[in-house]
Amino acid sequence: MVDELLNWGYGVEGGGPGVGGNMVDVGCGLGGSARHICEKFKVNGKGVTLSPYQARRGNEISESKGLGGEVEVRVEDALNMTFKDDAFDLVWSLESGEHMPDKARFVGEMVRVCKPGGKVLMATWCHRDLEEGESLSRREERCLRRINRCYYLPEWCSGSDYVELFKAHGDKVDLGSIRSADWSYVIAPFWKAVIKSSLNFKSVWGLLKSGPRTIRGAAAMAYMLKGYNMGLIKFALVTVDLKGGEEGGE
């Protein structure tokens, strides 16, 4: 998935940041995407997560793979990162935008830390695009509320909302470079496979023993699939290039 997203974002097979460059994974979890990108393209990377456990474990994994000097996972607030302006050639975010309570601040921070001439590339869960004056139906709102309760998510937005948020930074963003896509059809088989695999006795018994948090997560997957089948839930990709200029630093 990471390579396919990079190919789409850079518009070329094997696309990615140049050798000797750097990247940041915003909402990185254990830093898997950052490690893959840094190892493949010979760049240095940072990952930011709110979880001290994820940061500690992510750095342990990097060390075990011989990437301790190339990839660092930090405890950071993605909405208030401590990096300097114009710091990274690639700002990457995979399935973290849906967790951000302030989408405008999230986009603003990604643009802020991206170098002139650099790229922001994100993939996130969204609700469907709305026509002007249109709102989500009660049924759609109810589905999203159930997912939010299971996953502790804030309010959702659409892929087109993200495009507009990036356009608001037209002083730095090359508006002609903005692209978006709906890759829901790529992800849908994953949800179906996970749910199907959980419907055997062994999986159900393990689920019941695992506690309420895991049960909520399993329920959320069912609601996610329902939302996809309704045409409500989308896996949205957005990429922008920043206007060229002198490079900044971390």
From TrEMBL:
Stored SUPFAM superfamilies: S-adenosyl-L-methionine-dependent methyltransferases
Q: Name one GO biological process term.
A: methylation
Q: Name one GO molecular function term.
A: S-adenosylmethionine-dependent methyltransferase activity
Span of domain Methyltransferase type? 24-121
Residue ranges, annotated region (SAM motif I): 23-32
Region annotation SAM motif II: where it falls in the sequence: 86-94
InterPro entries documented for this protein? Erg6_SMT_methyltransf, Methyltransf_11, PiNMT-like, SAM-dependent_MTases_sf
Q: Where is this region: SAM motif III?
A: 113-122
Alphabetically list the UniProt keywords: Methyltransferase, S-adenosyl-L-methionine, Transferase
**What Pfam families is this protein classified in?**
Methyltransf_11
Show the PANTHER family listed in the entry.
GERANYL DIPHOSPHATE 2-C-METHYLTRANSFERASE (PTHR44068:SF11), ZGC:194242 (PTHR44068)
**Family stated for the protein in its record:** Belongs to the class I-like SAM-binding methyltransferase superfamily. gTMT family.
Protein known as = Methyltransferase type 11 domain-containing protein
Q: Which organism is it from?
A: Triparma columacea
